[in-house]
Design a protein that fits this description.
The longest helix is centred in the C-terminal third of the chain and has 32 residues. With 182 residues, this protein is of the alpha+beta class. The protein has one domain. Helix 2 runs parallel beside helix 4. It is built from 4 helices and 7 strands. About 6% of the residues have low confidence. It has a 6-stranded antiparallel β-barrel with strand order 1-2-3-7-5-4. The chain is 44% helix and 22% strand.
Amino acid sequence: MDQTSENEFLGEELRVSCPLMIGPSRRPLTDPVLAQRLIERLDLFDDSQSRGPSAHEDEVAPEIQRLEHKLDLLLHLVAESLHPERPDPVAVTLSTCGLVLPAGTLPEDCDRVEVYLSRLLPQPCVLGVETPTTRGTQQFTRWTGIEGPLEEAIGRWIFRLHRREVAEKRQKVDANRSQAGY
């Protein structure tokens, strides 16, 4: 990736690369307050989905564990039935300034994108973007209408994604060291 182009579109702020279901949208923009709340509540939802067994989880009644699994399944089924044709995940680099996508992900006249914040949530967050710029194999665009509390919520979401990425890399390094006998 051309570092100058990336800095031009994403700024000097924290950025994270991850697979994300994202695509062009004809839907109206998500209300900024609703988008902020959705992003802020997502961390609670994701933390409960991605955590391993906790120390006290053995103490949780089997009935409650079964209920949690049933709720997870129900959420998944509702998500699939309400919006079965979501875009495939693509490699995206995000910052609070904008995003970098594979070329051809968005049409040239795109002014908003659907971002599926979780595979279990059927409703995308529709955010405004500037007209994408294609350079080589990548598309660059900046967010529009993202300021104040929504910008802060997106920044915290990016930080959580970054922290998760660092933790996964650390686990891989630790696992490799364990296998090597260090």
